[in-house]
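Support request, please re-run this one:
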Amino acid sequence: LATLAQFIDAAPEVREALQTENVTLLAPTNTAFENLASALNTPLSELIGSVEIVTALINYHTLDGVVSDSTLRTRAGQVIPTRLTNAFVGISINAENQIVVNNVVEITTADIGASNGRVHILNDVLLNRVIDNLIDDLNFTDLIVPNVSSTPTATPVATATSTPQTARGSLRFAHLASDIDRLTVRVEGETLADNIRFGSVTDFEMRRQGIYTIEILSEDNRTLLERDVTLLNNDTLTLAVLGSLGNNTLNLVTFAEDFTPFDTDERDDSARLTVIHAIEDAPSVDVYISDALEIEDLAFTGFDIIDIAIPDDTDNEDAEEDEENSAPTLLITESGDEEDILFAENGNLFAPASYHLVLLYGTEDDAELAIITLSEADLADEEASEEEATQEADVDDNNEATATATTPILVTNTPRPTATPVPTDDSDEDEENSDD
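Re-run finished. Output below.
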C-alpha cells in the first residue's frame, strides 16, 4: 500500500483525519493506482501533486466507524456514506461471494486490523463524479492516448504533427430483468434507449472517459435504478439490468468484455465468448464446447470469458457437407449434471475472429438463450470512420466533461428465440427510433 501512503502524505489534513478513532479505510493496491494512472495517461506524481484530487479521493475511500466484513455483507444492495460530502458507495456480493463496491471494485482482503479501525484492500480505485470533474479540470483526459502500448511507462508527448485524441470507451445496455416488459435508459439525463423490450441489447456507443450517471426508468417514467458508472479509456462495458422487481433484487451490473485482437497465428481458428448467467431463480450452470467443459459452476450474475477453437475446413472437399458436424457445439447444463441440458446449439454457430455475447436470461421455467456477435472484420472496417467521427465530436462538444455525441460500433444481433413475438412493420420502426 505504498502508493496509498504517498497519497495520504500529500494531504496533511487528510492524514490527520485518518488518525481519529473508529474509521474504516478502503485501500486500493499499488497496482490499482498504476492502472488508474495508465488509464488517465498521466504519471501518478501529477495526481499526487493535486491536493484537491488527493483529498477527494481519500475521503471517498474512507467510512466513519469500524465497518467489518460481516457488516458490509449485511449492507448488500445498499449504499454507505463516505467522508466525501454527499458521496456514497454501493455494496453488493458477487457470484464468488466477494464483496463488490460500486458494482465493479472487489474487496480482495477484508478486516485488516488497525489501531483505530479497519482496512479492506481493493483491486481498483473508486472514482465518482466529484473526483472525475477535478481530474477533468486539470485536463488529464485531453492528453494524447498512446497507440504503441496499452501500459505506457511515461506520458506520451504530442509532436507538432500529432492529433490529440480524447480518452474514450464504449458501453451498451442489456435489459434482462425478468418481470419488466420495457424500460428506458438515460445517460446523464439523455435518453439512450427508449422503451426497450425485455431481452434486448443495445448497440455499443463510444463516449468520453468519465463518470456517468445511469438512470433506469419504467414504462410509466418511474426511476427504478440510478447508478454512477466509471468508463475508462478503452473500456468495453455491457451494463445489464438484472434481477426482478418482485423479489426486490433489481440491479445494474457491469460486465467488462474483452475485444483485444486475436494473435496472428490464432485469429483464423479462434472465437471469443462472454457468457453471462442472468436467470435469477435458476441454478448454476456448466458450459461445454464440443463436449469439453469450459466454464464450471457459473451462478446468477456471474460471467466468464473464454477463447474457443474453430476448426479450419477450407481445404476439405467435404467442408460444406461436414460443416455442421465439425463446427463447435455449445452445450449448457445444470452445474454438475451433464444430463440436465438447458440449451444445446449445433452447427456453424461461431465464426473465426469473432466475439460473441452469450446471454442466459428469463426465468427457470421459461429460460431463453441469445447470442450477439461482433466480428473482428466488422470492427476493423469501422475503426477509421469511428476515429474521424470521434474527432469531430470532440470539436462539437467543445471539450465538455461529458460527451453527448456517440459513435456506434457495428453489432450483428442474432434473432431472438422463436417464442418471441415478431414485431410488425410499425413496431420495427418504433424500435429503430428508440435505438436512436
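The CA atoms of residues 282 and 364 lie 5 Å apart. Confidence is low (pLDDT under 50) at residues 140-165, 393-436.
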